[in-house]
Amino acid sequence: MKKNKNVIIFSDTHDWHSNQLKKELKKLNCKVSCLSLDDCFINTKKKYNIYIPGYVNKLPDGCFIRTIGKGTFQQVTKRLTILHALKKLKVVLFNDIKCIEKSTDKSMTTFLLSHNKINTPNTWVPEKLNKANKIIKSLIKKKNQVIWKPLFGSQGKDLKIIKNKKINKNNEEVYYLQKFENIKVKFEKKWQDYRILVCNNKIIASMIRKNKKQITNIGQGGKPFRFNTPRYIKKIAINSTKIVNADYAGIDLIKDKNNNFQVIEINSVPAWKSLQKVTKKNIALVLAKSFIKKIK
After folding, report:
1. pTM of whole model > 0.85?
2. Which of 91, 118, 151, 253 is the most exposed place for a label (fewest CB within 10 A)?
3. Angle between helices 283-295 and 16-27 (to 10 degrees)
């Protein structure tokens, strides 16, 4: 067995996360390439039928998937094909392509959560605008709020709290609608939710995200605070990770009006910069060690 591992970090933007991972992987005797999935493509004239910069007649030992990147439906499909091809070629993926597909599509994530009896908000994903508006009208009539999310998206971008009884047609013509738990922490006058980072079925770090706005994502102005995770929340987070077979995942939860926790998302390519601010653990090192262990 080779002592040194040749690994790739795939990300469309190599930021703080890539730098932290690269530093820790190098300490673990890895040769690290930082690439984007749009750098790679199927090429049947190549030895392995795939072009990867820096890998002429060889393959990497493993690939750490940080982001897939924005793109058209065809571009994203092509990038996922690269991951499917690498898996077929026995290259270790962290996370696996099937995990990424299950959790990137919010509707599939929601189906799996509900199917596995994990508490998650009531959700509807119609294609027809008139059906979406009927659902919204019915919910608002019962004094519920609705959150409209893009089917594919992250960092709280393009989330909308629906306050009227009608929405307009969007370009994608898919409407991911979820009952919104509009619970504000009264004494702080802020909204909050929870992010739990799981790796190898263990809790690595947890935080509460708080914001003066209803959308609490860090990318939308939310602030991280330390959260001592109760045992039953740990169980929910770990079970959520298991249903998509994630090596690591960020589990997002929210409290409902009955004080019960609901899982709102499973993130298979989670950021952890804010989590690092509320824990003494070196998260990049934990992830790097887990990745290398999977390769062995």
Report:
1. yes
2. 151
3. 60
pLDDT digits (tens, 9 = 90+) for 162-211: 877 676 776 668 888 988 876 777 667 788 889 999 999 999 999 999 88
- Buried (b) or exposed (e) across 223-232, using 16+ Cβ within 10 A? bbeebebeee
Query: Residue 141 is encoded by which pair of tokens?
Result: 């009539």
3-class SS of residue 105? coil
The verdict on 113 and 212 lying in the same domain is yes
pLDDT at site 192? 87
> Does residue 153 share a domain with residue 83?
no
**173, 150 Cβ separation under 8 angstroms:** no
Contact 10, 35 (CB under 8 A): yes
Instruction: Print the domain residue range for 243.
Output: 96-119+183-280
